Amino acid sequence: MPIIAWLIFVAAATLEVAGNATMRNGLRGNRAILIAGGVSMLGCYGVVVNSLQWDFSRLLGVYVPCSRRLACSAAASVFLLFQACLGLKINGPDSQNTGGVRG
């Protein structure tokens, strides 16, 4: 498979993951600008993924694993980032460990 096809799949998967996340944040926060951004990213995703002139079964067979790998990598990165930030906040130098005893 040509390198341009892989680059197109990575771009499409990135737009899909980012568009879904932006849309979710917009819907949860009731922010129209994020909803509009998510809609535009998902629209661009549709254009990019269909820019290859392949039949649908071949396109689907190659794109789905590529997008899932990127989505899982993004989710793991975000989870590790939040875990690191939360861990630093709880166990930072200013926190006091009382062993569960208050007073």
Brief summary:
The chain is mostly helical.
Q: Can you walk me through this structure?
A:
This protein is mainly alpha-helical and 103 residues long. It has one domain (3-90). The chain contains three helices and no strands. It has helices at residues 3-29, 32-49, 56-90. Helix 1 (3-29) packs antiparallel against helix 2 (32-49) and helix 1 crosses helix 3 (56-90). The longest helix is centred in the last third of the chain and has 35 residues, at 56-90. It is flat. The model has no long low-confidence stretch (mean pLDDT 77).
Secondary-structure element string: HHH
Largest sheet: none
Beta-strand percentage range = under 5%
Rg value: 20 Å
Keywords:
103 residues, mainly alpha, 3 helices
Topology, pairings included?
Layout: H1 3-29, H2 32-49, H3 56-90
Helix pairs in contact: 1-2, 1-3
